Amino acid sequence: MRDFSYIAATTIPEAVALLDEKGENARILAGGTDLIVQVREARRDVDWMIDIKSIPEVNVLDYNADTGLVLGAAVECYKIYADDAICDAYPGLIDATTIIGGTAIQGRAGVGGNLCNASPAADGIPPLIVLNATCVIAGPNGERELRVEQFCTAPGQTALEKGEMLVSMKIPAPASNSSSYYLRFIPRNEMDIAVVGAGASVTLDDAKQTIVSARIALAAVAPTPLFAEEASALLAGREVSDEAIDAAAQAAQAIARPISDMRGTAEQRTHLVGVLTRRALNGAIQRVRDAA
Amino acid sequence: MARRSHVQTTLNGETVEFLCEPRQSLLEVLRDELHLTGAKEGCNNGNCGACSVILDGRLVNSCLVLGVETEGKSVETIEGLAEPDKLHPIQDAFLENAALQCGICTPGFIMSAKALLDQNPNPTEHEVRYWLAGNLCRCTGYDKIVRAVLDAAAAK
Q1: How many CB atoms lie within 10 A of CB A280?
Q2: Which sequence spans correspond to the domains of chain A?
Q3: Do B103 and B65 belong together in one domain?
């Protein structure tokens, strides 16, 4: 593997100062399940790895039914799905964290790293988008916040500026009569990269018959994970019906701009967007209705 | 070349110290510096699980951990499982079920199985299969491995 230096930062200002000083060849190390492979395979030139796992703020996993979830950037997947309250509040996030890699990957990898790696096929990002997550970013000029759907800018590229790092993601508390769902299509049962991924969140009325609001997000059909804004808006105020869900699925297909590659053709991916969007919406609706 | 770092960690219950470069993975440190060759290098990118070890109680791919990251941590490898005159129950179950052929994947499977049974002593077959999804075996067809893990759980 390429030679590099390793520093375990213990505070946010220390990590930010190092990132700012070392420039583009410095990279944050959290779980390392993407970064170490990329450096080993010479896909990323890294001279400095700045390990953030000793920084308290990036290890926060704090759910409060009134204020929502603060998810530190380095929190590993296994800690997220081990928390019963988080499983109840954000099932769509749990769908994703339980299928990112296998057990050994989930012991190291986190949603924050999944986001910063900015893969178009990232399973962790559509749930963040449908759950209205906000990114908390620290940099040389202090802290700023950014909506998660604006975080990824191209494959492997993010909105982080020089010297900036992701500290945490904030997810609002779930509304009553709401739930979320994420699924992907892969040719295997597990341990694979999404051909297409789709996430949905819905809020229903008290009778659980009408959609108050919905959010849909897609993976692996564009250079970045997508928020399907128009498709989501189509559902607001609609009664739960196949027609409403089909209309949203078609609108989601309309914004997909997939490529053909070894995992699937553009045509297959566009078809899958329709299928998976319907399943994600129906899955989220069913979860609302199944809840006591 | 980056300076070699001095690292102190607990390995199979005993304190060990080693020197390593930042770019050396835990797998390389185990095999090349500490001469523990039980963990195997298969894919070296987190897909095959042949290098599985337990780090602070969690199953990890040692090829995806830097040696320097283990400062102050606890590492369990296949070498720490058996007692001097007695195999670990999971190892016994693998032998009884003929759950290995060439043996390359076996240390990883056994460490993965140990991590599972440490936190879930009575897993279902479904849970065993999903837990072991990150360990690849090209010889056995998996069925004997799954049965071995279920037998080891039942024997406890």
Answers
A1: 33
A2: 5-51, 57-171, 178-290
A3: no
Query: Based on the structure, what is the number of domains in chain B?
Result: 2
Domain that holds residue B43: 5-80
The 10 Å Cβ neighbour count of residue A11 is 13
| SS3 label, residue B123 | coil
Distance from the A40 Cα atom to the nearest Cα atom in chain B, whole angstroms: 9
The set of long-range contacts for B36-42, using a CB threshold of 8 Å and a minimum separation of 24, is: B36/B11, B36/B77, B36/B79, B38/B77, B38/B78, B38/B79, B38/B107, B39/B77, B39/B78, B39/B107, B39/B108, B39/B111, B40/B104, B40/B105, B40/B107, B40/B108, B42/B104, B42/B105, B42/B108, B42/B136
- B81 close to A (CB below 8 A): no
Residue from the list B58, B66, B134 with its beta carbon closest to the beta carbon of A191: B134
CATH fold of the domain at A57-171? 3.30.465
Q: CATH number for the domain including B43?
A: 3.10.20.30
Question: What ipTM was estimated for this complex?
Answer: 0.96
- B46 near A CB under 8 A: yes
Closest CB to A101 among B46, B68, B112:
B46
In angstroms, what separates the C-alpha of B84 from chain A's closest C-alpha?
Answer: 28
Is the minimum CB–CB distance between B20 and chain A shorter than 8 Å?
no
Q: Which residue of A has its CA nearest to B134?
A: A102
In tens, the pLDDT along A231-290 reads: 999 999 999 999 999 999 999 999 999 999 999 999 999 999 999 999 999 999 999 999
